[in-house]
Structures are given as structure tokens and as C-alpha cells.
Amino acid sequence: SALSCFQCNTDNDETCIRTGCPIEYNVCINVTIIATRELVRRCWLDEHCQSKDVQAEFGEDKDISFVCCNWDLCNSRTNRTIRIDVNLFLLGFLAASAGLHLIWF
């Protein structure tokens, strides 16, 4: 049976709809555009779950994070929170390795 994913283009969960994906779409994607905190969820192709493909779709010049997953309705808000936490950790690590000193509260 076809995968079901949340689909929306906003940070407001109320506007996300559950949608059945076309059969060729085999993962759900959850994209966060860091600067605007815009959230995009949709059906996606597993072979395009690579940074270069996602950047090409959502903007080469944008700082984005994304996660792909392959079970029904897996691109929910909770996944976004986990991903953002990972990105904040990586951001801290990158800043530290660049010689910048950050104070974590």
C-alpha cells in the first residue's frame, strides 16, 4: 500500500494534512529552512534524500536541515525537534572548531 505523509508548507501544525503518496514516492521528508524556520513536509523519493538534491529543490543559498523516513506519517513535528537539536549541536561544534568561543546556557 502507498505511504501516507504529512504535507504542509508552514510552521503551523493545524494546516498540515495527511496525504496518501503516489506509489513511486517511498519516503516522507521534513525540511526546515533555518533562517525563516519555515517547515516543509511532503512525500519524497528515497534516492533524492541527499543534501544536494534537497538543496536543489528548496534553494541552493538556504541553510536547511532535513530528515527522510519511510513509515506512515513519520514526518511529524517531533522529528523536526530532534533534527533541530542535532543541528544546534553541530553548529556549536563547528563554531568551536572555527575558533569561536560560545557560552552555552
User: What's the N-to-C terminus distance?
Assistant: 47 Å
Q: Report the CATH C-level class.
A: Mainly Beta
Average pLDDT, rounded to a whole number, is: 79
Oligomer: single chain
Q: Structural class of the helix and strand makeup?
A: alpha+beta
CATH domain topology: CD59
Specify Rg, calculated over alpha carbons.
Answer: 15 Å
The CATH architecture can be given as Ribbon
Sheet with the most strands? 3 strands, antiparallel
Helix content: 25-40%
| CATH homologous superfamily heading | CD59
User: How are the strands of the biggest sheet laid out side by side?
Assistant: 4-3-5
Estimate what percentage of residues fall within beta strands.
25-35%
H and E string: EEEEHEH
* Number of helices in the DSSP assignment: 2
Low-confidence parts, pLDDT < 50 over ≥5 residues?
79-87, 100-105
Shape: flat
Number-wise, the strands total: 5
Number of domains: 1
Keywords: Membrane, Transmembrane, Transmembrane helix
Transmembrane segments: 86-104
Protein name: UPAR/Ly6 domain-containing protein
Domain UPAR/Ly6: 2-76
Key terms:
single chain; 105 residues; alpha+beta; CD59; 3-stranded antiparallel beta sheet; 28% helix; flat; disordered C terminus
SSE blueprint:
Elements: E1 4-7, E2 17-20, E3 27-33, E4 38-44, H1 51-58, E5 64-69, H2 77-97
Antiparallel strand pairs: 1-2, 3-4, 3-5
Structural summary, described in words:
This is UPAR/Ly6 domain-containing protein. By secondary structure, this protein is α+β, with helices and mostly antiparallel strands. It has a single domain (about 5-95), classed as CD59. The protein is built from two helices and five strands; from the N terminus they run ββββαβα. It has helices spanning about 50-60, 75-95, and strands at about 5, 15-20, 25-35, 40-45, 65-70. The protein has a three-stranded antiparallel beta sheet with strand order 4-3-5, with helices on both faces. The protein has a two-stranded antiparallel sheet with strand order 1-2. Strand 3 and strand 4 (about 40-45) form a beta hairpin. Mean pLDDT is about 80; it is low at about 80-85 and about 100-105.
